[in-house]
Amino acid sequence: MTPWKAPASQGPIRATVRLPGSKSLSARALHLAAIASGPSRLHGVLDSRDTRLFAAGLEALGAVLSPIGHDPLSVTPLEGEREAAAGIDCGLAGTVMRFLPPLAALSAAPARFDGDEAARERPLAPLLTALEALGARISFGGAPGRLPFTIRGPLRVPECGWVEVDAEQSSQFLSALLLTAPLLGAPLEVRAPGRLVSAPHIEMTVAALVRRGCRIERIADEPHSA
After folding, report:
1. Rounded CA gap, 174 and 164, in Å?
2. Cβ distance 103 to 35 under 8 Å?
3. Are strands 64-65 and 73-76 parallel, antiparallel or unpaired?
4. With contact defined as beta carbons under 8 Å apart, do 151 and 103 qualify?
5. Dihedral of CA 77/80/84/87: which sign?
6. Are 27 and 201 contacting, i.e. CB atoms less than 8 angstroms apart?
7. Whose CA is closest to 225, among 178, 159, 180, 157?
8. What would the 3-class secondary structure string for the chain be?
9. Alpha-carbon distances of 189 from 73, 91, 160, 206, rounded to whole Å
10. How confident is the model at residue 226 (pLDDT cuts 50, 70, 90)?
11. How much is the pTM?
12. How does 213-223 read in b/e, with b if 16+ C-beta sit within 10 Å?
């Protein structure tokens, strides 16, 4: 292997650099645009395999998006309840395999999720268990709690008014429920007992929802509650 010699400047550098968009913010913005009450135009969406897969997943569920890489990127939201079956390729994207199953389960039509071979080792059971408590029906094509699986709804707020999710492995489990909760037609209390990892990502999700007009009430100041 021939070593690569990094270039060195012999003087001052003057340049304008455009920073790429945040992958985490891009996924949340795409998700919220797809469930908005009208079309959206998004600026600065990251062009990456994960965001392309996320956009393709939203299109499989019925949204219409201009290709990732366009700026601004236009999003026409989902309309009504999906009636056709859907197939969603998660690749290795945690946001696809965790944020989109709750959205898919709003409909009684089935949606099949699968991804790269390595994606089948990533944990999903805590989220899927919470979705079953909300009325989802899930069948697995392999090991329970992992890809591939087929999910169908419709989701509903249970009589108790709350659902619990174990977010000790991934904050995305909690974010996934928060992103879909405004669509359930009634207030939902989401509980996350135990140690919450990646709390800043939860704050990012909450901020994104509040910025778009959703009302979120913190019922406790403990770090594991949201």
Report:
1. 9
2. yes
3. antiparallel
4. no
5. positive
6. no
7. 178
8. CCCCCCCCCCCCCCCCCCCCCCHHHHHHHHHHHHCCCCCEEECCCCCCHHHHHHHHHHHHCCCEECCECECCEEEECCCCCCCCCEEEECCCCHHHHHHHHHHHCCCCCCEEEECCHHHHHCCCHHHHHHHHHCCCEEEECCCCCCCCEEEECCCCCCCCCEEECCCCCCCHHHHHHHHHHHHCCCCCEEECCCCCCCHHHHHHHHHHHHHCCCCCCCCCCCCCCC
9. 33, 31, 9, 14
10. very low
11. 0.90
12. eeeeeeeeeee
Residue 156's Cα: distance from chain center in Å?
19
Q: Quick check: 89 and 114 in contact, CB under 8 A?
A: yes
Burial of 65 (0-12, 13-18, 19+ CB in 10 A): buried
Average pLDDT over residues 176-195: 95
Q: How far is it, in rounded angstroms, from Cα 63 to Cα 219?
A: 33
Q: Which two tokens mark 130?
A: 């919470």
Q: Is the pLDDT score of 222 beyond 70?
A: no
User: Per the structure block, which two tokens stand in for 6?
Assistant: 């990094």
Token pair, residue 66, equals: 């201009």
What is the C-alpha to C-alpha distance for residues 146 and 69, in angstroms, rounded to an integer? 31
Q: Please report where in the chains the tokens 């974010």 appear, as a residue.
A: 175
